[in-house]
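dumping this here so i dont lose it
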């Protein structure tokens, strides 16, 4: 039986990494073999592209094309083989991030992103996407206090993150079956509880 494909999304600083670790433990506890991966990245080539994407200034279309190039490789090398083996794939960001960041944040024409999505994925989509939603000022504050050098996206202004957040929420409205919006401002234990409920429903 094909495995399930779960993606996590949200603004930088929404707390994805904490919840991702918990989600993976929950799935393993239910006997699933889990492949944990991320975008951009997830393959040796993808990780090289990630380094470039997070540091090098570039045209907004180059940025979108490189995100999807990394994704093509990731699907071919990691995601599709894992799902075909029956493993569950938990991916930190996927195509919704391209619509939110390149589309919403940078203002790239959504029609172009739709073309890339169809080209790269065909009809493969996540079975479930968890969108950790937090007010922009909360996310922005957390990012600025990370105590490490900020990457090219994290250095963007608050308005950029407002647009990213609005684009994520709009996508969630159009795909309510797939995208579950979780309140990322809640405590870690409250979110863990919500995750358990969500996972119980998808594991049935
Ligand atoms: P992320 O893994 O969340 O970074 P961190 O390691 O700091 O938690 O994501 C890296 C950045 O890449 C993030 O700012 C969003 C951006 N991104 C896009 O702009 N488009 C995309 O398609 C993807 C997958 C990520």
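and the seq i came up w/
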């Amino acid at each position: 039986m094909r495995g399930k494909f779960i993606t996590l999304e949200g603004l930088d600083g929404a707390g994805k990494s904490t919840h991702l670790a918990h989600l993976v433990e929950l799935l393993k506890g239910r006997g699933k073999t889990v492949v944990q991966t991320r975008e951009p990245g997830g393959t040796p080539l993808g990780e090289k592209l990630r380094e470039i994407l997070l540091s090098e200034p570039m045209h907004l279309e180059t940025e979108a094309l490189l995100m999807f190039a990394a994704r093509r490789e990731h699907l071919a090398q990691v995601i599709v083989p894992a799902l075909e083996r029956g493993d569950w794939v938990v991916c930190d960001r996927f195509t919704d991030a391209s619509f939110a960041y390149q589309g919403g944040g940078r203002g790239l024409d959504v029609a172009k992103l739709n073309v890339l999505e169809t080209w790269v994925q065909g009809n493969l989509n996540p079975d479930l996407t968890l969108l950790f939603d937090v007010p922009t000022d909360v996310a922005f504050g957390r990012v600025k206090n990370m105590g490490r050098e900020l990457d090219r996206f994290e250095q963007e202004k608050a308005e950029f993150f407002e647009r990213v957040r609005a684009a994520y929420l709009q996508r969630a409205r159009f795909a309510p079956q797939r995208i579950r919006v979780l309140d990322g401002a809640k405590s870690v234990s409250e979110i863990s509880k919500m995750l358990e409920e969500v996972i119980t429903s998808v594991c049935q």
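The chain is about 55% helix and 15% strand.
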